[in-house]
Specification:
This protein is 16% helix and 47% strand. By secondary structure, it is α+β, with helices and mostly antiparallel strands.
Length: 167
């Protein structure tokens, strides 16, 4: 079920730098593992859109002492980005089976509370981790092999929470 995939470390490193602001001495990132309920589920070549945001709401406030109006910006609706995972196509059907649970209407069974994304260096040591909450695959697809003979599987995880938890 599990396999090691050679990563485009430049892509993963750029993601890690952009996501967590590691401008000085960034770690060597060789692969990203997906952990589900404490068990390593697989490795991915590319992971994008880890994070969250708040909409910004502009609220007009009147100063009670002066009567002057001013605009205050406050956090609005919280949104967690959908996370895109990519890897080379293999005989592993786990992602497709997980997605099929959603297609079959079994969302309560498909939604997983304990999901981790683990960044590993070339010595297979953990250099970063994100904790994802209440995740389920909202998309999965594979493309036909390109001229170099490689086919890519892409899965999108929809989550209700995300946090950076170590390193």
């Amino acid at each position: 079920m599990l396999r090691f995939t050679v990563l485009s470390s430049a892509v993963v490193l750029a993601l890690l730098v952009a996501t967590v602001g590691l401008a000085q001495n960034p770690p060597d990132v060789a692969r990203v593992g997906l952990e589900i309920e404490g068990a390593l589920w697989g490795f991915f070549d590319k992971v994008t859109h880890i994070g969250s945001r708040h909409e910004v709401v502009e609220h007009v406030v009147v100063d009670p002492d002066t009567g002057e109006e001013y605009t205050e910006k406050i956090p609005g609706r919280y949104e967690v980005f959908d996370i895109t995972l990519e890897r080379l196509v293999s005989s592993d059907m786990d992602g497709w089976d997980w997605r099929q649970m959603v297609v079959d209407g079994l969302i309560d069974e498909a939604r997983i509370d304990d999901v981790g994304l683990i960044f590993y260096n070339s010595s297979n040591e953990e250099v970063g981790r994100f904790q994802l909450e209440r995740c389920w695959p909202s998309e999965i697809e594979s493309n036909a092999p390109t001229t170099d003979g490689l086919a890519v599987e892409r899965m999108v995880l929809t989550c209700e929470g995300v946090s950076r938890v170590s390193k």
